[in-house]
Specification:
alpha/beta, binds guanine, Rossmann fold, 10 helices
Length: about 290
């Protein structure tokens, strides 16, 4: 047996087409959705993520404006930039690419953002709403994972979903989305992390296993129940001299070892990554509609 591949590129393209249709309707009534992206400093991975997000904006007809302050920008200047964007009626969504330089407190920046423009779903108000089941901007990666599961032909209803990783941008919002009452939720959720005892015993119980720990090839074949759906959130650069760029991307899952056992699996690249970007488009179009 070999796992079915859940193709994030295809599903993300489908979602971008849907957003494009929504954007066309908005333009008919004189509104062009606009995403302001803030990229601080010069981290190559962050630059590449922001470039991908802006390319997706172009494709769906969302205007994107890039702000590139230098890495030594003060925290106060960064807060002022966010406030300007909060008050700009032409800006519907604000994306601050993380991580920020160490001298800038990420939470302070996120909290300075208007929750109505927080298309990443990182603001405590949006996360709090998510916890109690209210409508909110959902973090793009967890929201994209739900779409991958359902559009890939699977369901979360009644399933035991094990999440490995408890980050504020993936593990925690993912858990809160999946435990809600609702058609695209109703799961039993276990969250594991670096202090979990006997991790393989838990991951082997998963009908759906979500790996989001940021460690290359962490999930091995022994950790997966035969037939499980395996979602790989990791994007790790590891040294590799074959491609000219000197690195290759691998996930948190040992794909070669796990594919023969799993029922379905997402590749890296081409799995969760494109979905994160597609959901940012969904959230930005929604922010523009909410501002009408
Ligand atoms: N850094 C890593 N993932 C993300 C993301 O989804 N959004 C932002 N803004 N920064 C990130």
């Amino acid at each position: 047996m070999s796992a079915k591949l859940i193709d994030g590129k295809v599903i993300a393209a489908e979602i971008r087409q849907e957003v494009k249709a929504q954007v066309t309707e908005l333009k008919k009534i004189g509104v062009t959705p606009c995403l302001a992206a803030v990229l601080v400093g010069d981290d190559p991975a962050s630059r590449s993520y922001v470039a991908n997000k802006r390319k997706a904006c172009d494709e769906v007809g969302i205007q994107s404006v890039l702000h590139r302050p230098p890495a030594d920008l003060s925290e106060q200047s960064m807060v002022e930039l966010i406030r300007e964007l909060n008050h700009d009626p032409n800006v519907h969504g604000i994306l601050v690419q993380l991580p920020l330089p160490r001298h800038i407190d990420e939470l302070k920046i996120i909290e300075s953002m208007s929750p109505q423009k927080d298309v990443d779903g990182f603001h405590p108000i949006n996360l709090g709403k998510l916890v109690i089941g209210l409508d909110s901007f959902k973090s793009c990666t967890p929201a994209g994972i739900v779409e991958l599961i359902f559009r890939g032909g699977y369901t979360t209803e009644g399933k035991h979903i094990v999440i490995v990783g408890r980050s504020n941008i993936v593990g925690k919002p993912m858990m809160n989305i999946l435990v809600q009452k609702g058609r695209q939720a109703n799961a039993t959720v276990t969250v594991c992390h670096s202090r979990t005892q006997d991790l393989p015993a838990l991951t082997r119980q998963a009908d759906i296993l979500i790996a989001a720990i940021g460690q290359p090839l962490f999930v091995t074949a022994e950790m997966v129940k035969p037939g499980a759906v395996v979602i790989d959130v990791g994007i790790n650069r590891i040294e590799d001299n074959t491609p000219a760029k000197g690195y290759k991307l691998v996930g948190d899952v040992d794909f070669e070892a796990v594919q023969p056992i799993a029922g379905a699996i997402t590749p890296v690249p081409g799995g969760v990554g494109p979905m994160t970007v597609a959901m940012l488009m969904v959230n930005t179009a929604r922010a523009a509609k909410m501002a009408l």
